[in-house]
Amino acid sequence: SRPQKVCLCPFLPVHPLKVSTCLYIIQHPAEESRVLRTVPLLAACLPPDKCKILVGRRFNEDRYPELATVCRNPGTLILYPGAEATNLEEVAVMSSSPSVMIIIDGTWSQAKDIFYKNSLFRLPKQVQLKPSISSQYVIRTQPTNTCLSTLECAAVALSIMEKNKSIQETILHPLQALCSFQLQHGAQIHHSKEHLLKNGLYDKPMPKNKRKLRRMELLVNNIKI
């Protein structure tokens, strides 16, 4: 759905990747209207039955019985960092059967709202990724250097679950092409908010909200938030 000179199809896998893990992408409605979102690229890399996208803010058992069943399945994981989360590498070592993984797609505040206001999402085992790589999605601002886009999270998670590093490289390929095209046509590299604050480059007014101001102080002092 892009002009031919910036078409991303040549950077997608010729055939959808064969994976046993099924992804459920819980997408905040605001993401649908974003031009440079990553979930369509992710979906183009995977078979339709392995990447299911549900759009909304609130999910209950009456309206989403299939999702409720998935959340109650002991093999289901939800990718959301926090004190209660286990590193995905540890879970993958113990898992041999096909799994289902839920990933929330939105800004960090939107994802937090969805996670905490939907009790279904606290039923699956909570997992997180080790902060070992920096985001390549340089055309959107992230809170910290190790905050990843939805596509990057899925790429890393699938490579771990499927025990196949090439999956990560294949899924990241169209994202790298997207960023390259955008930068060639006038887009600017977006450093993380953490980078801007630490280097005195943050040029927006500091928030008056004490909670938001505290979060910025934690970023500057490299404290996990």
Automatic annotation (TrEMBL):
<dbReference type="GO" id="GO:0008033">
    <property type="term" value="P:tRNA processing"/>
</dbReference>
<feature type="domain" description="DTW">
    <location>
        <begin position="1"/>
        <end position="187"/>
    </location>
</feature>
<keyword id="KW-0808">Transferase</keyword>
<dbReference type="GO" id="GO:0016432">
    <property type="term" value="F:tRNA-uridine aminocarboxypropyltransferase activity"/>
</dbReference>
<comment type="similarity">
    <text>Belongs to the TDD superfamily. DTWD2 family.</text>
</comment>
<dbReference type="Pfam" id="PF03942">
    <property type="entry name" value="DTW"/>
</dbReference>
<keyword id="KW-0819">tRNA processing</keyword>
<dbReference type="InterPro" id="IPR039262">
    <property type="entry name" value="DTWD2/TAPT"/>
</dbReference>
<dbReference type="InterPro" id="IPR005636">
    <property type="entry name" value="DTW"/>
</dbReference>
<keyword id="KW-0949">S-adenosyl-L-methionine</keyword>
<protein>
    <recommendedName>
        <fullName>tRNA-uridine aminocarboxypropyltransferase</fullName>
        <ecNumber>2.5.1.25</ecNumber>
    </recommendedName>
</protein>
